[in-house]
Automatic annotation (TrEMBL):
NCBIfam families: aman2_put
Record domain Glycosyl hydrolase family: where: 304-791
Keywords for this protein: Hydrolase, Signal
MF-aspect GO terms: carbohydrate binding; peptide-N4-(N-acetyl-beta-glucosaminyl)asparagine amidase activity
Protein name (record): Glycoside hydrolase family 92 protein
Record's signal peptide: 1-20
Domain Glycosyl hydrolase family 92 N-terminal: 28-298
Gene3D superfamilies: 2.70.98.10, alpha-1,2-mannosidase, alpha-1,2-mannosidases domains, GH92 mannosidase domain
Native species: Lophiostoma macrostomum CBS 122681
Entry GO terms, CC: cytosol; nucleus
Biological process annotations from GO: carbohydrate metabolic process; glycoprotein catabolic process
Family annotation (PANTHER family): ALPHA-1,2-MANNOSIDASE FAMILY PROTEIN (AFU_ORTHOLOGUE AFUA_5G10520) (PTHR12143:SF27), PEPTIDE N-GLYCANASE PNGASE -RELATED (PTHR12143)
Alphabetized Pfam families for the sequence: Glyco_hydro_92, Glyco_hydro_92N
Length: 814
C-alpha cells in the first residue's frame, strides 16, 4: 500500500485469477506518478497525467474532472488534480499534455441531493473529496464529500461507473456541455458547439451527441456520440436545456452571464438549437441499491456507441478491472520482464512498470472510428505531440509494440493522403500545434531505417515527408504566432529553402526551427535512400542547415560557437542571450530551450558539433558545464521544476545530451550523468517526474535509462549505457527475446557499482559503446543477448569507433 501526503492511495489489488496466468506486473504500477507538481497538493509543474480507468492506447480514458484553486498552481489537463473539486466524470482524456486542456467529455456527475442545485451551475454541485483516492491499473475510486462513492473502470470504447449513495436519494446528472476548461486563458480554451440528448423508453438509456472544439490545437469541433445506460429503471428521468453562458466561444453562440441561467426541463429529449443551448439529463432513483452506469462512445454514430457499451461491458466492475489489468499485463508489462521476487528492489519495479503504463495511454487507437473519410487504413488520434514522442518513445514502441506501431504509421500516412499533411500534433481529429519542425518525418524515418515494412506503403510515406520538406502550409492565423502556421508542416520553408536556415526576422523560433528542420531533412534523406535515391543527397545537404546558423564568435560562459538567431541578410543577432530564451515560447527566437542547449541537439552530425565547439576537449568541458547546478539562465517553470542546470532533463530537447559522452568514447560519463539525473529527479511518488510527462515521453526516457540503452532516432543506432537490473527479457519484433544482463552490478543505496567494464553481444566481445538494430545477427529483430560487466571503476572500456554521424557534412569543403 502506498499513500502520499496528498490524498492518494495506490492499491495492490489481489487478483489470483490473473497471477495464475503469469506475473501480475500491474501490481507494481503507481498511477499517481506525475499527478502532483513541486508545490505539495497542487498539480502545477507536475506530469499532467491522466488518473483513471483505461486499457492500452484505449479510446476511452474514464476519470474525474476537477477544478483546483488557486488556478495558477493547478493544471486541469489530465482531469485529476490532488485537491480539486470534482465537476464531472468524463470519458475522453489526454495524459501528460501541457497547453490548453483538451477533452473531458461527455460527463456524468452523481448527486446525493438536488437541494440548492442548479444543473447549469457547476458551483452548486461540485464536490470536494474525502479520504484517499485509490487507483490501480484499470481502476479508480473516490469518495465525494456528499457521501457518494465512485468506482470507475474502462474498456477500449466504453466506461463503467459504479456509484454508492449515502441514502435512498440518488441522482445522476448527465452533462453534455461539460468539458475541461482553461481558467487562465481564452485563446486555446475549449468551447461547446452544441449537442442533443434523448432518453429511451424505460428511462434507463440515454443517447445523443455533443460537439466540443478548441483546446490546445484550436481544433474544429469534435462530435462524440454517446450511449449510456443505468442498471436500474429510474423513478424520474428528464432532459434539460439552458442558456449557454460559457465565456469563451468565438465561433458559436453564447449569452452574457449577468444572470445565472436556470434549466428548462423536457420529458424525453433536448437539443441545442440555434442558440447553442447547453443540454443534459437528470436521472433519479429512490433506492438503497448501488447504481451502475455503462457508457459507450463513438465518433461515428449512436448505434456504434451502444454496441460498444453492450459488447464490451457487463455491470460487474471487478470483471472489467480484471480484464483491463490482464490486457495491460499481456500486451504491455510482460513485454519487459525483470525479476519480481521478494528480493527485487520494489522502487525499481514501480519505476519501470509505471513508466511502461504512462507510455501507453496516448495516442488513442481509433480503428473504425474515423469520422472524416472512408479508408481501409487504421485510424489513430491524440499524437500530442510528435515533438515529444519522436525523441525515444517511438523507438520503444518499434521494439515492443510492432503491431500497434505499424498501425500508427499507416494512420499517419493516411492523414497525409486525406488531409494533405502529416501531423506534428493531432488531437480531436485535428492537426496542430507545430512546435518546431515536422517531426513525424523523424518518426517515419526511425521506423524505415529499422526495417518496419508490413502493410505500410513507403511510396506514400516518402511522399508525405517530402511534402513537409517542400510545401509551405497555409497560414492558420493562430493568435500566438503572426508569422506562420502552427497547424502542420514547416511554416518557415520560405527561409529554409532559399537561405538554408530559418531567419530570425522573417520567422519565429529561428534557433529551434533551424535545429529541428535540419534533423527533419536528415530524416527525409534516410527514407529517400531507399525510396527515391536521387533525392537523398539533396536532403542530406539541407540537413546541414544548422551550420549556417552557427556563429563561431558567439560567446557565453567562456564557451564560443553557438547556433544563434541569424537574419535573412546573413548577419547574426549578436546581442541574443544564449542562456536565456525569455518566455521561450511561440513568438520567441528559440522554443523551450536556449541556444546553449540547442547547440548540442544535432544527433545526425555530432562529429561536426564537436569540431565547431573546438574539438573533443572543449566539447567535453562544455558538456560538463551544462550539468553543473545553478548555471541555468532561465526559470524553467513547468518544464523543469527544481532544475537549475542549463541541461534540462525534464524537457525533450535535452533528452539526448547526457549521452553525448559516448561520442567521445567516454561512455562512463554518460552513465554517471544520466544516473545522477534519475536519482535527482525521478521517484515513485506523486511528484516523481520533473515536468509534464508529455504523452509518456519523460517516462520513456526513464525506461531506456533503466534498460541501459539509448536510441539515436532516425538512425538504427543504440547507445550502450548501464542497466538497472541484472536480467531483463524484452519481447522484440513480435516474438523474439532480447535479453539484457548485468554482472557485477552493485548500485543500491548510494553505491556506484554501475560503470561498464565490458560488453558482449551474442557472445562477441563488443568494443564499441553502440550497436545497430541488425548487428550481431539481428539483435533487435531475431533477439539475442547483450551482456554488461559492471563495476565501480570509471573505465574507458570502449576501444572501437565512436558512434557514427551519418549526417556528417563538411560545409567548408563540400
Ligand atoms: C499563485 O498566486 C498566488 C497569489 O494569488 C501566489 O501567492 C502564488 O505564489 C502563485 N503561485 C505560483 C505557482 O505562481
Ligand atoms: C430498459 O430497456 C432496455 C431495452 O429497451 C433493456 O435492455 C433494459 O434492460 C431496460 N432496463 C431496465 C432497467 O429495465
Ligand atoms: C463551470 O461552468 C461554467 C459555465 O457555467 C464554465 O465556464 C466553467 O468552465 C465550469 N467550470 C469547470 C471547472 O468546469
Ligand atoms: C461572468 O463571466 C465573467 C468572465 O468570465 C466572470 O468574471 C464573472 O464572474 C461571471 N459572472 C457570473 C455571474 O457568473
Ligand atoms: C422513497 O422510498 C421510501 C420507501 O419506499 C419512501 O418512504 C419515501 O417516501 C420515498 N421517497 C421519495 C422522495 O419518493
Ligand atoms: C530471461 O529468460 C531466460 C531464458 O528463458 C530465463 O532463464 C531467465 O530467468 C529470464 N529472466 C527473467 C528476469 O525473466
Ligand atoms: C503505394 O502507393 C502508391 C501511390 O499511391 C500506389 O501507386 C501503389 O500501388 C501502392 N502500393 C501498394 C503495394 O499498394
Ligand atoms: C571565464 O574565464 C575567466 C578567465 O579564465 C575566469 O576568470 C572566469 O571566471 C570564467 N567565467 C566563467 C563563467 O566560467
Ligand atoms: C540585417 O537585418 C537586421 C534585422 O532586420 C538588421 O537589424 C540589420 O541592421 C541588418 N544588417 C545589415 C548589414 O543589413
Ligand atoms: C542573459 O540572461 C541572464 C539570465 O537572465 C542574465 O543573468 C545575463 O546577464 C544575460 N546576459 C546577457 C549577455 O544579457
Ligand atoms: C513471429 O511473429 C511474426 C510476425 O507476427 C510471424 O510472422 C511469425 O510467424 C512468428 N514466429 C513465431 C515462431 O511465432
Ligand atoms: C532501490 O532502488 C532505488 C532507486 O534506484 C534506490 O534509491 C535504492 O537505494 C535501492 N534500494 C536498495 C536496497 O538497493
Amino acid at each position: 500500500m502506498f499513500a502520499s501526503s496528498c490524498a492518494v492511495t495506490f492499491v495492490v489489488l489481489s487478483l489470483p485469477g490473473i497471477r495464475a496466468q503469469g506475473i501480475d506486473y500491474a501490481q507494481f504500477v503507481n498511477p499517481f506518478i506525475g499527478s502532483e507538481g513541486g508545490i505539495p497538493g497542487y498539480a502545477y509543474g507536475g506530469g499532467d497525467v491522466f488518473v483513471g480507468g483505461a486499457v492500452p492506447f484505449g479510446m476511452v480514458k474514464l476519470g474525474i474532472d476537477t477544478y483546483e484553486e488557486p488556478v495558477n498552481q493547478s493544471a486541469l489537463n489530465g482531469g485529476w488534480t490532488p485537491q480539486g473539486k470534482v465537476t464531472g466524470i468524463s470519458m475522453l482524456h489526454e495524459s501528460g499534455t501541457g497547453g490548453g486542456a483538451k477533452y473531458g467529455y461527455p460527463a456524468q456527475m452523481p448527486l446525493a441531493s438536488l437541494e440548492g442545485v442548479n444543473l447549469l451551475d457547476n458551483l452548486t454541485y461540485w464536490q470536494t473529496r474525502e479520504g484517499d483516492d485509490v487507483a490501480s491499473v484499470g481502476y479508480f475510486r473516490t469518495r465525494l464529500a456528499s457521501g457518494v462513492s465512485v468506482e470507475l473502470s474502462a474498456t477500449r470504447h466504453a466506461g463503467l461507473h459504479h456509484y454508492s449513495f449515502p441514502s435512498e436519494e440518488q441522482h445522476v446528472l448527465v452533462d453534455f456541455s461539460h468539458y475541461l476548461p482553461h481558467p487562465t486563458r481564452s485563446w486555446d480554451s475549449q468551447f461547446y458547439a452544441g449537442g442533443e440528448i434523448e432518453i429511451q423508453a424505460n428511462g434507463s438509456v440515454y443517447t445523443g451527441y455533443t460537439s466540443i472544439g478548441g483546446g490546445w490545437n484550436i481544433g474544429a469541433p469534435v462530435t462524440v456520440y454517446v450511449c449510456g445506460e443505468f442498471d436500474a429503471s429510474p423513478e424520474s428521468a428528464k432532459t434539460f436545456s439552458g442558456k449557454n453562458t460559457f465565456p469563451v466561444s468565438r465561433h458559436f453562440r453564447t449569452t452574457d452571464n449577468l444572470t445565472t441561467p436556470e434549466p428548462t426541463f423536457q420529458d424525453s429529449s433536448a437539443r441545442s438549437g440555434p442558440m447553442n443551448n447547453r443540454v443534459g439529463a437528470i436521472f433519479s432513483w429512490n433506492s438503497t441499491d448501488d447504481i451502475r452506469s455503462r457508457v459507450g462512445v463513438s465518433f461515428i454514430s449512436v448505434s456504434k456507441a451502444c454496441a460498444y457499451k453492450n459488447e464490451e461491458l457487463t455491470w460487474d466492475i471487478d470483471k472489467t478491472v480484471q480484464a483491463a489489468r490482464a490486457e495491460w499485463n499481456r500486451d504491455v508489462f510482460s513485454k519487459i520482464r525483470v525479476d519480481t521476487s521478494d528480493s527485487a528492489n520494489r522502487t525499481r519495479l514501480a519505476l519501470l512498470y509505471s513508466s511502461l503504463y504512462f507510455t501507453h495511454l496516448i495516442p488513442s487507437e481509433r480503428i473504425g472510428e474515423n469520422p472524416l473519410w472512408e479508408s481501409e487504413e487504421p485510424s489513430w488520434d491524440d499524437f500530442y505531440t510528435m515533438w515529444d514522442l519522436f525523441r525515444n518513445q517511438v523507438s520503444l514502441w518499434h521494439l515492443i509494440q510492432p503491431k500497434y506501431y505499424e498501425s500508427m504509421i499507416r494512420s499517419l500516412i493516411d492523414m497525409f493522403k486525406n488531409e494533405g499533411y502529416l501531423p506534428d500534433g493531432r488531437s480531436g481529429n485535428y492537426n496542430g500545434l507545430v512546435q518546431g519542425g515536422s517531426n513525424a518525418d523523424n518518426v517515419l524515418a526511425d521506423a524505415y531505417v529499422k526495417g518496419l515494412r508490413g502493410a505500410i506503403n513507403w511510396t506514400e510515406g516518402y511522399a508525405a515527408v517530402k511534402k513537409d520538406a517542400e510545401v509551405i502550409p497555409f497560414f492558420d492565423e493562430n493568435p500566438v504566432d503572426s508569422q506562420g502556421s502552427l497547424k502542420e508542416g514547416r511554416s518557415a520553408l520560405d527561409d529554409w529553402i532559399p537561405l538554408g536556415y530559418v531567419s530570425a526576422d522573417r520567422n519565429t523560433r529561428a534557433v529551434s526551427k533551424t535545429v529541428e528542420y535540419s534533423l527533419n531533412d536528415f530524416a527525409v534523406s534516410q527514407i529517400a535512400a531507399g525510396e527515391e535515391p536521387g533525392d537523398q543527397n539533396i536532403y542530406l545537404r539541407r540537413s546541414a542547415g544548422w551550420q549556417l546558423s552557427w556563429d563561431p564568435e558567439a560567446t557565453s560562459r567562456n564557451f564560443s560557437g553557438f547556433v544563434m538567431p541569424r537574419y535573412a541578410n546573413g548577419t547574426f543577432h549578436k546581442t541574443y542571450n544564449i542562456t536565456n530564451c525569455g518566455d521561450c515560447n511561440w513568438a520567441d527566437e528559440s522554443y523551450e530551450g536556449t541556444a546553449f542547449e540547442y547547440s548540442f541537439v544535432i544527433p545526425h552530425d555530432v562529429e561536426t558539433v564537436i569540431q565547431l565547439m573546438g574539438g573533443p576537449q572543449h566539447f567535453e568541458e562544455r558538456l560538463d558545464y551544462v550539468f553543473q547546478p545553478n548555471t541555468s539562465g532561465v526559470d524553467l517553470g513547468v518544464n523543469g521544476l527544481g532544475i537549475t542546470s542549463i541541461n534540462n532533463v525534464a524537457n525533450e530537447p535535452d533528452f539526448g545530451t547526457p549521452y553525448l559522452y559516448n561520442y567521445l568514447n567516454k561512455q562512463w560519463k554518460s552513465v554517471q550523468r544520466s544516473r545522477q539525473l534519475v536519482n535527482d529527479f525521478y521517484f515513485n511518488t506523486s511528484n516523481g517526474i520533473p515536468g509534464n510527462s508529455d504523452a509518456g515521453a519523460l517516462n520513456c526516457w526513464l525506461i531506456w535509462q533503466m534498460l541501459g540503452l539509448y536510441p539515436i532516432v532516425t538512425t538504427p543506432v543504440y547507445l550502450l549505457e548501464s542497466p538497472w537490473f541484472d536480467d531483463v527479457n524484452i519481447t522484440v519484433n513480435h516474438n523474439s527475446t532480447l535479453r539484457i544482463r548485468a554482472e557485477g552490478r552493485d548500485d543500491g543505496d548510494g553505491r556506484q557499482g554501475y560503470y561498464v567494464q565490458g560488453v558482449t553481444i551474442n557472445g562477441q566481445n563488443w568494443n564499441k559503446n553502440w550497436f545497430e538494430h541488425e548487428d550481431a545477427g539481428g539483435i533487435m529483430t531475431a533477439g539475442g543477448e547483450i551482456s554488461f560487466q559492471l563495476g565501480a571503476e570509471q573505465k574507458v572500456w570502449e576501444t572501437g569507433d565512436a558512434p557514427p554521424s551519418p549526417g556528417h557534412i563538411d560545409l567548408g569543403s563540400a
